[in-house]
Amino acid sequence: MDGLDGGVEPQFSTHMIWEKIRMISSLDWNEVWKERMARSIESSGGRDCVGHWSNEGEASNYGRMLEGDDLQSVALFRDSMALSSPFTVLDIGAGTGRLAVPFSRMASRVTAVEPSAQMLEILNEQVKRHKIENIDCIKKRWEDIEIPADLPEKYDLVVASFSLGFPDLREAVSKMIAASSRYICLMWFAGEPSWNADYRKISSALFGDSDHQTMPNSDVIFNVLYQMGIYPNIRVFNFEMLHRFGSLDEAADYFAEKFSALSSTQRSVLEEVLPQILEERSGQWILPYRASNMMFWWEKG
Ligand SMILES: C[S@@+](CC[C@H](N)C(=O)[O-])C[C@H]1O[C@@H](n2cnc3c(N)ncnc32)[C@H](O)[C@@H]1O
């Protein structure tokens, strides 16, 4: 019946299709988000999104990859929303300040919520270097923020961009709505980002088949929002960032640490597999990170 072993085409009766439709219609998509997020954390050895970014090497590499991206990063907001000065921005999971820094030049005030000390350190360096006076930082996870104790005022724009390490999406979005006086925006991956396939290849070379579970994607976000009665504007966009290594050896060091692959046999495996994934350009070894993404945004009703 399943067409896998016997080559027989799957046969679904109208009744079976209707049963599946009924099942999908009664799904609580926030439970799908919670379950997929929990499985993804479990298959990463208990390390969640914040854990991943609480690492000096990852934080400084992220900052380096974004150098020069300044104006492009806020163009999507300027094109989509009526953000006329003075306006205020709450940037949740602000990271190294990809949005917070350029927004600080357009907005009267930006609040950056960021739990990773390593990401926050780079954001603070930028604040100092550019003599920015209108960014405040709160070192907390979004789930631990209390309104109004932590955020006594509302913001014209509340955004969470590639920072949706939220165990419960519905709860996180409800709090974003509570913190906003006008716009709410989420940005996340649509489809499979290029690095998932690359990491799978490395992991299966090292350990055989990988059972790594990825985080939920934009399809789940759309359904959670829809079930909350939110029908967002959606904009699709792509990005490419380049992770540059000075040598193949440097790349092998990075992946040895990332995959806890520290034996000499594993080192040889990395040296064999990495040239199949990285691109050599003028003496550097480059891993491109490419992704299709969705920006969900709406005005508070
Ligand atoms: C890929 S970076 C994105 C940074 C920035 N928003 C951007 O668009 O470039 C992800 C950031 O989200 C933060 N993050 C993940 N889960 C979070 C949570 N539950 N609450 C607050 N921040 C979170 C991480 O600490 C990390 O700094």
Short description:
With 301 residues, the protein is an alpha/beta fold. The protein contains 12 helices and 8 strands.
Description:
The chain has helices spanning 14-25, 29-43, 49-53, 56-65, 70-80, 100-106, 117-129, 169-179, 194-207, 218-227, 248-258, 264-277, and strands spanning 88-92, 109-113, 135-138, 155-161, 180-190, 233-245, 279-281, 284-299. The chain has 301 residues and is an alpha/beta fold. It has one domain: Rossmann fold (3-Layer(aba) Sandwich). Strands 1, 2, 3, 4, 5, 6, 7 and 8 form an eight-stranded mixed beta sheet that branches. Helix 7 links the parallel strand 2 (109-113) and strand 3 (135-138). 28% of the residues are buried. The model has no long low-confidence stretch (mean pLDDT 93). The chain binds S-adenosylmethionine.
Q: Please tell me the overall pLDDT.
A: 93
- Poorly predicted runs of 5 or more residues: none
What is the overall number of helices? 12
Structural category:
alpha/beta
CATH topology annotation:
Rossmann fold
Q: Give the cofactors and ligands.
A: S-adenosylmethionine
Q: Report strand %.
A: 15-25%
N- and C-termini, Cα separation: 49 Å
Helical coverage, percent range: 40-55%
For the largest beta-sheet, the strand count, sense and barrel status come to: 8 strands, mixed
Oligomer: single chain
Radius of gyration: 21 Å
The CATH superfamily name is Vaccinia Virus protein VP39
- Count all strands and give the number: 8
Number of domains: 1
CATH class call: Alpha Beta
